[in-house]
What does this fold into?
Amino acid sequence: MLWASADVDAATLAADVVALTLRDGELHVALVKRKARAARGRWALPGGFLLEGESAEAAAYRELAEEVGLRRRDVRLEQLASYTAPKRDTEHPKRVISIAYLALAADLPDTVPGTDADEAEWVPVEAALGRRLA
It folds into this structure.
């Protein structure tokens, strides 16, 4: 197989999760307020970079646990899409390729912010669509 670019290491991989649940009969999405230097203080979907030797799915489960307190047994992940456009993440020096997952379950527990999040909350999808996310 021929590669158009020999610089395969020029990208970093991330896993991001759209976690949805019902709250009082309304669809909600999990959002976190970023603690990390990049996008600090901005609301975002849970997610982060893959660790050495980690699959994208394992990273998605890890980030859900770290950022919103959801455990693997709480949700089932389905791969949603991949985002590969160059320079789509303007706050990172390398190209960021994101693999997005959907986590959908009825009546998920309250969010618990963790290592990379100052805050985490379930937000009605309608309200989240009006926010400018990181």
Residues 25 and 107 are 10 Å apart (CA to CA). The beta strands are 11-23, 26-34, 43-44, 47-49, 77-83, 95-104, 117-124. The mean pLDDT is 85.
